């Protein structure tokens, strides 16, 4: 299982490395937002710069996983290699594990520009223990977005998956409060954000990097979203399996 999962992860990474622009796109928007908004406006304030960097990291986690899994899985399903691999006796678990490992590796690579900009162009600060907590939080908040991407990728054809990912991308970022710091969003966003996956994720990140208190209601909502999206991903996979292999 472990060896097969690593083989699938290596295959996914090699496939992505052959088209570097795919990785560049995931890293570009959060890095551009850091340069356009965070560095000039709050870069000199350690507290605001650290919170804004956490927001941009959440933004990158969402966009990377939404497009990587949503669009990537839909593209794979359109290739003749995909149905062949799914007929192999190893089952779906190694492929899922390998895809998730490769996705996490690519996600952390896409975060490097944001972290470097925060480190060298702003006053954002983080202690070593807080850095480790933040790294673990990044992995935790990636889970619902991975599941969301898988649900889209296994339930829609390629062209529809691209459109749905694009339609979800900006509203989830804005309504989740990723465009502003803690408590700085418009009133209706502040009221709605804790109950959206993006809002719950960024609140966990703010708590990991600073003094923002852990919000039980947003954590509960994020856990609920994870369960719902996990069910949707499994349902979409089984539906696709039944349609293509029955």
Outline of the structure:
This protein has 246 residues and is mostly helical.
Descriptive labels:
246 residues, mainly alpha, globular, Nod_factor_ABC_transporter
3D architecture notes:
Its main location: membrane. The chain crosses the membrane at residues 21-42, 48-67, 100-122, 128-153, 160-179, 216-237. Residues 10-192 form the ABC-2 type transporter transmembrane domain. By secondary structure, the chain is an all-alpha fold. It has one domain (1-244). 82% of the residues lie in helices and 0% in strands. It contains 10 helices and no strands. Helix 3 packs parallel to helix 6 and helix 9 (197-209) crosses helix 10. It is globular, with a radius of gyration of 18 Å. The model has no long low-confidence stretch (mean pLDDT 87).
What kind of sheet is the major sheet?
A: none
- N-C termini distance: 25 Å
What sequence of helices (H) and strands (E) makes up the elements? HHHHHHHHHH
Total number of strands:
0
Tell me the fraction of residues in β-strands, as a range: under 5%
Low-confidence stretches: none
Name the helicity range. over 70%
The total domain count is 1
Q: What is the 3D shape?
A: globular
Pfam families: ABC2_membrane
GO cellular component, one term: ATP-binding cassette (ABC) transporter complex
Transmembrane segments: 21-42, 48-67, 100-122, 128-153, 160-179, 216-237
Keywords: Antibiotic resistance, Membrane, Transmembrane, Transmembrane helix
